[in-house]
Design a protein that fits this description.
Blueprint (H helix, E strand, L loop, with lengths): L2 E13 L5 E7 L3 E7 L18 E7 L5 E10 L2 H4 L2 H17 L7 H14 L6 H18 L21 E3 L4 E3 L11 E2 L2 H12 L12 H19 L4 H13 L1
Parallel strand pairs: 3-5
Antiparallel strand pairs: 1-2, 1-4, 2-3, 4-5, 6-7, 6-8
């Protein structure tokens, strides 16, 4: 059939012509896909609100030869609390940028779709503090990498396969933790505490709803954030633009 329906999260909106947009969405059924949304840039368009970044919307799409197009759409969740907080909103943009950059089109990944929706839902909670939101983002980063097949080695030394002991380091280039004997294999390693390694393991196995409750000492969490930053930068082959803004924002507000 030419017409088909999906529920999707909007990852990105790009202007094609004055009132026409290319909307990048992520759905349970098809993963990431780009669709043409004609006329949604007009002030009077009823579809305009439902195609804004990180909206969760129900969409009726028309299958085209080169690109599918948006026929109808209805916003299901707009995450209004999240949008009223600049830091949380930037975190949401960062999550969408990561997902958009690290996934190929038309590759279904239902667990990743569920993780995205769940994380957005928690970020939208009014009572969620910024430190708790940071844990949600870190958990999303690590779980997403795992679901995409990029999970770093957190058990044994990624270089020799031996027990992780001594002065620990983490290598994004090598793809995991290095034992004290193998630190020299990479000149760009990050020194980490054993507690930080345990936290990475804990993030991976903790369900999203349990992440805000984790009691994490700030110094260890800063090490964890540095590890995740190095990992995502390695896989993106660049620094995420929204992360740069988030870091600058954090410096001015904390």
């Amino acid at each position: 059939m030419k017409l088909y329906q999906v529920e999707a999260v909007v990852l990105r909106l790009k202007t094609m012509r004055e009132a026409d947009k290319i909307v990048t969405i992520y759905s349970r059924e098809f993963g990431k896909q780009r669709v043409a949304a004609y006329g949604v840039g007009k002030a009077a368009s009823r579809r305009r609100g439902a195609v804004q970044p990180f909206c969760h919307s129900r969409m009726l799409l028309y299958r085209g030869q080169e690109i599918d197009s948006l026929s109808q759409c209805e916003g299901l969740t707009f995450y209004s609390h999240l949008r009223s907080d600049l830091e949380k909103m930037t975190m949401a943009f960062y999550i969408c940028e990561l997902l958009d950059s690290l996934t190929a089109e038309q590759e279904q990944n239902e667990p990743l779709y569920i993780l995205l929706l769940t994380t957005m839902g928690w970020l939208d909670k009014l009572e969620l503090t910024i430190p708790q939101a940071e844990k949600m983002v870190a958990g999303f980063e690590l779980k997403m990498l795992g679901l995409l097949g990029y999970l770093p080695e957190l058990g044994n030394c990624v270089n020799c396969g031996g027990e992780v002991k001594g002065k620990l380091t983490f290598s994004a280039n090598s793809g995991g933790v290095l034992c004290g004997n193998c630190t020299g294999v990479d000149s760009k390693v990050l020194r980490i505490n054993g507690q930080t390694l345990n936290l990475l393991r804990q993030l991976l196995v903790t369900k999203p709803g349990g992440l805000p409750k984790l009691n994490i000492e700030r110094s260890y969490f800063n090490e964890l954030k540095a590890v995740m930053k190095a990992l995502t930068r390695y896989h993106l082959e660049r620094k995420a633009k929204s992360l740069e803004f988030l870091e600058a924002l954090y410096k001015t507000t904390h």
